[in-house]
Amino acid sequence: MTKQAISLFSKNNLILLLIALLGLILFFGSPLRKKKYAQEGQFYEQVYLESLKYKLTENKKDSIREQRTYVTKSQPKNVIFMIGDGMGLTQISAAEIMAEDSMALERFRHIGLSKTKSTKLITDSAAGATAMSTGQKTHNGVIAMTKELKPLKTILEYAEEASWVTGIVTTSTVTHATPASFYGHQPTRAKVNRQLAAQFMEHDIEVLMGGGINYFNDRDDQRDLLEEARERGYFVTEDVEQIGEYVPSKLLCLISTGQPKRLDIRGNFLPLATNKAIEVLAKPKTNFFLMVEGAQIDWAGHANNSDYIIEEMFDFDKAVAHALDFAEKDGNTLVLVTADHETGGYAINGWDKEKEKLKTEFTTGYHTGTMVPVFAYGPGAESFAGIYENTEIFYKLKHLMGLGNFQ
Ligand code: MG
Ligand code: ZN
To answer: How far is the CA of 284 from the centre of ligand 1 (A)?
Structure first.
């Protein structure tokens, strides 16, 4: 090295070199940062939905509401969609206060609020489930049909069409408003259990668990739908515990004639059924969509029975724990937990020292118009933060699941 070269590294030059380097970092660093922010801005995709323009008939009379859907670009392999029928914030709060350990619901980090109105301010469970399963507000009592009574394809039917395997688990009859709104299409929910059972058989839904065996094998049309299901490869049983370790490829588990009973009779059905359904549906090469309903939180609200509400909340929360455990292990499953509406106008007013339980009150024997929480875990969970119409849940799910195009 020459003396000149060495002098380049003299003290003065070294300082100049450092200043130049700092300048370079500042010059190139800021555009890099800008780019990063821009990418974060794109994290949420905004989707404008023509179909989400709808007219409210009862409140805000002449305003046409428009909605934009925000979803992340994540794509979950599987979706477990859990509905606590009638599960408002007070139902959750009461269970949280009474629980010995923290609840599974407390494991969620992405939480939103869903507006529950149907074409009426106070929804019923048919219109509430239809909003979430089809993206359309409809009249109370209508199962997966428009206000003009045209059938609407449900998220489960979109999934089936795209070769996802699908399942339904509930603590009501499988033909009750909530589960039926995922596979059935009826202008009214009343007295159509047997028609709905037949509509179930028109699909190839891999798992169906709940009550209402009589709607399948005690029919005027003389069809034995249980026999038909067996012929089509379903494992048919009346007891979830009887299935044991066996993992059939298709499962029809109907535990009761008419509605399943309360917890003391039906036992651990819901958490066990949720686990078994996941076992049947989870396969390496296929996607699955599972709907799980805690149906009797609503019935407890209608009965204005706080103990019954808390009992049903604990049961539902156990099912949520199983879904979350699976999703954590799997790493590619979206778990959603929400409600169709609140039931009872349930309130916590203090602690009754003598009875050693919550002092509670109810404002109604029917549903209320309060918003309900939406809990989300897994790929796409961020999409469910915020306040939005219940119909949004359908569009968010459909988009995240990559099922069909928007608009
Ligand atoms: Mg229900
Ligand atoms: Zn109800």
So the answer is: 31
Using the predicted structure, report yes or no on whether residue 228 has a pLDDT greater than 70. Answer: yes
Q: Are 144 and 268 in contact (CB under 8 A)?
A: no
What spacing in Å lies between the alpha carbon of 127 and ligand 1's midpoint? 11
* 54-72 confidence digits (pLDDT tens): 555 445 544 455 566 777 7
- At residue 309, φ and ψ (nearest 5 deg) are -60, -50
CATH superfamily, domain at 63-400: Alkaline Phosphatase, subunit A (3.40.720.10)
* Residues acting as catalytic residues: 125
Residue whose structure tokens are 């269970």? 95
What residue segments make up the domains of the chain, in order of their start?
Answer: 3-51, 63-400
| Interval between CA 265 and ligand 1 midpoint (Å) | 19
pTM over 0.85: yes
